[in-house]
């Protein structure tokens, strides 16, 4: 009974997470229709207007306006698409790369491991700003290159976490017995090790999601990112940095949007882990 | 064991060399120091003269060879901005970075471990909700936002703590808390998740069957294995903090290596960039060595001497 | 009732934002103030007076430790310092009478020989000095007697006296054994006590300063890079004087009752540079003029900078500069006329242009660029914004690689038309404008020391600048300042930020 309650709570949270994520995706798809105002419309007379909530008037800004008088709600909605696409792509790319390299490094060991892990060290040691500037100098500034920078600065976390787990897992009974039964490397990696690594990897992915969105705001100071006047949450955060004390709504509302999407993904991630966990099938 | 450590250190030197080579070439792609160091209105001849004095007009390979020969002797050249040895400029900032990084790490690890542990054991209770909300906020709140708000509250309004700066313990409190909250979020989430996972595993259930007291199970079986990703993450975070927490340093006027290196990158002070990156990469290598050795302590089945 | 969100917000941050006025910390002491703390926005990197050209930080601190021959006061006028008086002997020679018996703290004499040594160090290529660029026309120093020195120039150098206010004198013997980058031994009003790079500098008043006794016993320069932290430290009573924060903070500071704030127009002229070396702006002054009419400069200053800052008078100079032309007036905002001119210029249906925005250098550049893009859009000019890191941008722009337009600004530290207008002459790498007449006039004015003649020539040069519109003239960005109630800073629009300009009250 208690266990059942546990699962109800867990799945309710999972449901809530799913709703959150679906909602954000829906908003980002329907952004042009959903935005109450033109997200690009500058209105100097109304700059830094504080949030007001009323259904009657037209000149109303539910989440306030930014430093050149644009409606923040509309900008959060219109910026969600590029923000989510960039963040999701970067995390998925970084995750795929990091997890596979981490698996290989941890499982095979030897020189392969050394090369992969030293590459990770190398990547981590290059200051982000310098790395971004190098990418700009060599590849030029673009959204694709922004994703590349974000993914390349993220893969190392996945790789190190995965490798650490694999080091321990590969000596466990179930792996050793699978080996004893003559299973091939690929089969062991994907059937026996990967599922056990995913728990930590999903957590890292949700951590990465927040990191990547906030990082995008740092990169917007270098011109690598969404070019104005278009909005992205990171860009809005960056714009609001100077106004935390005088106009808190500039950086706070994009921040809330980030918290909500991260919350949704966290809950969904937890639920997915329980759902797909091979060890839980007997319990449920 | 000591042979293994020596081997790793040798490997480390090779990777530092590789990294410095990349940085040496790449930094020169990102801009021209003459334009940023000389005043506006300098003539072409004056700019060329500056590049000549600094040796930037020599072929890249020649500059590189000179750089390597000097770097081996610990000489990273003279900072273009500071006009003294680049390594001295970097090392001078290191104590501040170390102080902030270690304090934040210890605080963050403690907070993170406690919250993660509580959240895993008390699943479905209000305690878990509280712990995970804290972790969520720590993970998704931009550091600059938290920094400015903390300064407004504790320095401007209450007057309890200084609004940034370096020197006394009071100066350390706000930046350390800011970073610790961020660190604790990663730790708590990873620990909780691994613990839940492992709690479900067979051998824990076996332990239950054997009638071991619950506390012992928690401490020995669950926690130790669950700590592997936590230790890995701590290693990554430690490395990043020791490379300088740029945003926190800037908000709190903390004289660490992060803001120094960023400024050097922006003003194309190549010697400082190179010296800084060399120090950072040594940090990462040392920390990763410690992390790998810790794996062996946590799970004796992991054999690192191969 | 309609303001639910506002009250929600205030609740959310109430602790942080609402109760600023009640807090302790700003208590006033009855004793005369003996320490003044100044907040700097960027690090002081070096104390070597010849190896830095950064006025706002390095040279400002250096000016407290060392003395120049001539100093520029807060009123922008030149005053004697180590040189009691000076005059031009002929077009190529200037004579300076030094204050007698000035010594460095180690006993070295600050005499004509010391000046000669300093000039030689400045001009020596092996010394890697950064100020050479400002003194390119200087040839040598000649010692006449211990208190008389002559400076000889290669060509007439009318702005020499102004330029000398940026040259500080090192003690020759001491400098050969010490590193002036981190140590100091000067003849200035203060001595260096502590220099912790990236954090703070502490100075103490010299026991026997040869000039007027400094107002404060101790000066602390604190490095506080983040603007909001500087404001917080001021409000918390930790710092007495700050500059360079967003103009929106002015009201908050004044409302707090703890400090006062304002802004002065700086000498930095912000503009949008047309690339007149390639189409569509090449050979099309009408098009360039059309764009000048399309921007509501005044509205931007009024809103973004709450009225601080001043609109450019259709050329590079402001009232602070020698050579200012009082007859020129700003180009008004007239979108209808802009559209007409655009059609006349051959673009009745508008055109597509790129606008480059270097980041991290100029006040609110991305905001201004977006407003400009929107206003140009209103007359049919479709602007694509391209933001770039400053270092990346300037390397490209110096090699002639700038796109159609770029938003940037220039200030010339001597406040003399010669240096400033040189930046628009046709061979200057900063110039994207090839105007022979303008170049000839500016070069002619730069080669005479006759002030009346120079003024007349600059009047003509600035007229050409206005007519031919090499730029979209914008405004002079403001310098914001805030001070505690115990000090009074003598505000100035150039970058100098000196403790000696602060008075206790």
**Judging from the principal axes of the Cα atoms, what is the shape of chain C?**
globular
User: In sequence order, what are the helices and strands of chain B, one letter per element?
Assistant: HHHHHHHHHHHHH
In the residues of chain B, how many domains can be counted? 2
Strand content of chain C: 15-25%
Number of helical runs of chain C? 15
Number of DSSP strands of chain B? 0
What's the average pLDDT of chain B? 86
- In CATH, what is the class of the largest domain in chain C? Alpha Beta
Number of strands of chain C: 19
Decide which structural class fits the backbone of chain C: alpha+beta
What is the helix fraction of residues of chain B, given as a range?
A: over 70%
Output the CATH class name of the largest domain in chain B: Mainly Alpha
Can you describe what's shown?
The complex is a heterotrimer of chains A (284), B (306) and C (505). Chain A is an all-alpha fold. Chain A has helices at residues 2-29, 31-34, 72-108, 110-125, 128-139, 143-169, 173-180, 185-219, 233-240, 249-276. In chain A, α8 packs parallel to α9 (233-240) and α8 (185-219) runs antiparallel to α10 (249-276). Chain A is elongated and about 75 Å long. Chain B has helices at 2-27, 33-37, 44-54, 60-72, 86-121, 126-140, 143-157, 169-199, 202-209, 214-242, 246-251, 257-266, 270-298. Chain C has 505 residues and is α+β, with helices and mostly antiparallel strands. Chain C contains 15 helices and 19 strands. In chain C, the strands form five sheets. In chain C, strands 11, 12, 13, 14, 15, 16 and 17 form a seven-stranded mixed beta sheet that branches. In chain C, α8 runs antiparallel to α10 and α14 runs antiparallel to α15 (451-468). Residues 1-30 of chain C have low confidence and may be disordered. At the A-B interface, α1, α4, α5, α6 and α8 of A face α1, α6, α7, α8 and α10 of B.
Question: Keywords for this structure?
Answer:
heterotrimer; A: 284 residues; mainly alpha; MetI-like fold; 10 helices; elongated; C: 505 residues; alpha+beta; D-Maltodextrin-Binding Protein, domain 2; Dipeptide-binding Protein, domain 3; 2 domains; 7-stranded mixed sheet; 4-stranded mixed sheet; 30% helix; disordered N terminus
């Amino acid at each position: 009974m208690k266990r059942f309650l546990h699962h109800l709570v867990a799945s309710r949270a999972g449901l809530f997470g799913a709703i959150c994520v679906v909602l954000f995706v829906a908003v980002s798809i329907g952004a042009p229709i959903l935005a109450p105002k033109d997200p690009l419309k500058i209105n100097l007379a109304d700059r830094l207007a504080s949030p007001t909530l009323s259904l009657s008037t037209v000149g109303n800004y539910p989440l306030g306006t930014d430093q050149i008088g644009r409606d923040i709600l509309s900008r959060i909605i219109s910026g969600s698409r590029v923000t989510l696409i960039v963040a999701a792509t970067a995390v998925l790319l970084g995750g795929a790369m990091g997890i596979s390299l981490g698996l290989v490094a941890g499982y095979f060991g030897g020189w392969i491991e050394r090369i992969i892990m030293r590459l990770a060290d190398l990547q981590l040691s290059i200051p982000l700003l310098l790395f971004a500037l190098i990418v700009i100098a060599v590849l030029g500034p673009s959204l694709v290159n922004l994703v590349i920078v974000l993914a390349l600065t993220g893969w190392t976390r996945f790789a190190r976490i995965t490798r650490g787990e694999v080091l321990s897992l590969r000596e466990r009974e179930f792996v050793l017995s699978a080996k004893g039964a003559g299973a091939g490397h690929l089969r062991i990696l994907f059937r026996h090790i990967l599922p056990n690594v995913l728990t930590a990897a999903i957590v890292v992915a949700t951590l990465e999601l927040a990191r990547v969105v906030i990082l995008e705001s740092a990169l917007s100071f270098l011109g690598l990112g969404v070019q104005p006047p278009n909005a992205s949450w990171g860009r809005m955060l960056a714009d609001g940095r100077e106004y935390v004390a005088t106009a808190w709504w500039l950086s706070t509302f994009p921040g809330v949007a980030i918290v909500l999407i991260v919350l949704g993904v966290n809950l969904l991630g937890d639920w997915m882990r329980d759902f797909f966990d091979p060890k839980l099938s007997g319990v449920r | 064991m000591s042979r293994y450590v020596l081997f790793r250190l040798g490997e480390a030197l090779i990777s530092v060399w590789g990294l410095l080579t990349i940085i040496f070439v790449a930094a020169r792609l990102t801009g021209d120091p003459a334009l940023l160091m000389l005043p506006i209105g300098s003539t072409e001849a004056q700019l060329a003269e500056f590049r000549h004095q600094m040796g930037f007009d020599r072929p890249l390979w020649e500059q590189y060879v000179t750089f390597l020969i000097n770097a081996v002797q610990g000489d990273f050249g003279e900072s273009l901005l500071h006009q003294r040895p680049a390594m001295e400029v970097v090392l001078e900032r290191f104590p501040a970075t170390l102080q902030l990084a270690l304090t934040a790490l210890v605080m963050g690890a403690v907070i993170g471990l406690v919250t993660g542990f509580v959240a895993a054991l008390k699943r479905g209770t209000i305690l878990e909700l509280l712990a995970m909300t804290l972790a969520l906020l720590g993970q998704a709140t931009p550091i600059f936002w938290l920094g400015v708000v903390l300064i407004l509250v504790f320095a401007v309004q209450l007057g309890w703590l200084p609004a940034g700066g370096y020197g006394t313990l009071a100066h350390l409190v706000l930046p350390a808390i800011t970073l610790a909250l961020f660190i604790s979020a990663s730790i708590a989430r990873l620990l909780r998740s691994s613990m839940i996972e492992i709690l479900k595993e067979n051998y824990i259930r076996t332990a239950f069957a054997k009638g071991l007291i619950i506390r012992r199970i928690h401490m020995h079986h669950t926690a130790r294995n669950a700590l592997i990703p936590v230790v890995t993450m701590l290693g990554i975070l430690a490395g990043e903090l020791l490379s300088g927490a740029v945003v926190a340093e800037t908000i709190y006027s903390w004289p660490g290596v992060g803001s120094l290196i960023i400024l050097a990158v922006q003003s194309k002070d190549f010697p400082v960039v190179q010296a800084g990156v060399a120090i950072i990469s040594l940090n990462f290598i040392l920390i990763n060595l410690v992390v790998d050795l810790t794996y062996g302590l946590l799970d004796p089945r992991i054999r690192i001497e191969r | 009732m309609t303001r639910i969100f506002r009250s929600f917000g205030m609740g959310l941050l109430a602790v942080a934002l609402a109760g600023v006025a009640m807090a302790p910390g700003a208590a006033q002491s009855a004793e005369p103030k003996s320490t003044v703390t100044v907040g700097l926005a960027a690090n002081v990197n070096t104390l070597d007076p010849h190896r830095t050209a950064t006025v706002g930080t390095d040279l400002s601190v250096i000016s407290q430790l060392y003395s120049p021959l001539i100093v520029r006061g807060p009123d922008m006028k030149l005053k004697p310092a180590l040189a009691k008086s000076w005059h031009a002997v002929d077009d190529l020679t200037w004579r300076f009478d030094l204050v007698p018996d000035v010594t460095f703290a180690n006993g070295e004499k600050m005499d004509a020989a010391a000046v000669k040594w300093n000039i030689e160090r400045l001009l020596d290529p092996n010394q890697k000095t950064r100020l050479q660029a400002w003194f390119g026309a200087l040839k040598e120093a000649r010692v006449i007697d211990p208190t008389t020195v002559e400076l000889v120039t290669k060509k007439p150098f009318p702005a020499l006296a102004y330029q000398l206010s940026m040259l500080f004198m090192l003690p020759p013997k001491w400098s050969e054994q010490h590193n002036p980058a981190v140590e100091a031994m000067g003849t200035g009003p203060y001595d260096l006590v502590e220099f912790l790079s990236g954090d703070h500098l502490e100075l103490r008043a010299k026991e026997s300063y040869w000039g007027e006794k400094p107002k404060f016993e101790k000066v602390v320069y604190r490095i506080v890079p983040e603007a909001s932290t500087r404001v917080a430290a001021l409000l918390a009573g930790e710092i007495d004087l700050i500059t360079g924060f967003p103009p929106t903070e002015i009201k908050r500071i004044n409302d707090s009752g703890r400090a006062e704030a304002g802004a002065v127009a700086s000498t930095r002229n912000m503009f949008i540079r047309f690339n007149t070396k390639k189409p569509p702006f090449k050979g099309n002054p009408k098009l360039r003029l059309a764009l000048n009419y399309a921007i509501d400069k005044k509205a931007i200053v009024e809103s973004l900078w709450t009225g601080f800052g001043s609109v450019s008078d259709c050329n590079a100079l402001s009232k602070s500069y020698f050579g200012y032309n009082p007859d020129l007036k700003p180009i008004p905002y007239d979108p209808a006329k802009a559209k007409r001119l655009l059609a006349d210029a051959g673009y009745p249906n508008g055109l597509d242009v790129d606008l480059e925005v270097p980041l991290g250098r100029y006040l609110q550049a991305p905001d201004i660029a977006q407003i400009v893009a929107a206003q140009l859009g209103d007359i049919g000019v479709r602007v694509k914004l391209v933001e770039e890191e400053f270092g990346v941008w300037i390397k490209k722009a110096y090699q002639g690689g700038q796109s159609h337009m770029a938003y940037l600004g220039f200030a010339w530290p001597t406040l003399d038309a010669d240096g400033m207008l040189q930046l628009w002459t046709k061979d200057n790498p900063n110039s994207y404008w090839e105007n022979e007449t303008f170049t000839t006039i500016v070069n002619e004015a730069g080669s005479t020391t006759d002030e009346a003649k120079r003024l007349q020539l600059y009047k003509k040069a600035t007229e050409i600048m206005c007519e031919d519109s090499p730029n979209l003239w914008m405004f002079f960005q403001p310098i914001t300042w805030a001070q505690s109630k115990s000090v009074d800073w003598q505000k100035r629009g150039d970058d100098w930020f000196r403790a000696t300009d602060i008075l206790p009250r």
